Structures are given as C-alpha cells and as structure tokens.
Amino acid sequence: MAILTRLLTVYIWIGVALLLLLLFEIARFYQRTSGQRSFYQGFLIPALCFLLAAGRYVLVASDFTGDAVGDLLLFGGGATLILLGHYLLKLMTGGRP
User: Fold this and answer.
1) Could you list the residue range(s) of the whole structural domain that residue 22 is in?
2) How many domains does the chain have?
C-alpha cells in the first residue's frame, strides 16, 4: 500500500507541475505578444518547489505531512504561485477587478 501511495503522490505532483508549465507558456506568450513584462520565468520556481517537495515526501517522509523541509517547499511554492498568478491576472485583465 505504501508503494501505491508514493506512486500516486508522484503522479499527482507531476500533473501539478505540468499545469504550472502551462501557466508558464501562457505568461510567455502574453509577454511576447503584448510587450509587457510578465515574469514568466517565475512560474518555474513553484513547479520546481512542488516537484522537490513531492520527491522529499516520496523518498524521506512516510506521510504527506510532518516533514519540515517538504512543508516549507510546498509553502514557498504556493506563496510564489499566488503572487505570480495574481500579478499575471492583473496584467492580462488590465487591472480590472
């Protein structure tokens, strides 16, 4: 059962990282077409943080919570993603609410 849990953890976080790469491509496309700086490279930071946290949980921790390094990686990736996502939203909508 532990192997199945670890495989599902890796599978899910790889999917999350792929979704972040999609956001990366959207932001890069927007920057190229509009000429406004979107900081699209920043979307690689949360993808890397999430993949490192998933690797940490699979290889070191036996449970999804309780590992301080993994939790900090998830927090850092999530906080970065919120800031970048909000910035991209405001940029693409022209600051409209």
Assistant:
1) 2-93
2) 1
Task: Give the position of tokens 């970065």.
Answer: 80
Q: Compute the distance between CA of residue 27 and CA of residue 43 in angstroms, rounded to an integer.
A: 9
Task: Provide the 3-class DSSP secondary structure of residue 13.
Answer: helix
How many C-beta atoms lie closer than 10 Å to residue 38's C-beta? Answer: 21
User: Alpha-carbon distance 16 to 19, whole Å?
Assistant: 5
Collect all residues with Cβ–Cβ distance below 8 Å to 14 and sequence separation of at least 6: 51, 54
Amino acid at 66: G
Q: CA nearest 19: which of 70, 69, 77?
A: 77
Asked if residue 15 has pLDDT above 70, the reply is yes
> Model confidence over 23-81: pLDDT tens digits?
999 999 999 999 999 999 999 999 999 889 888 888 887 666 678 898 899 999 999 99
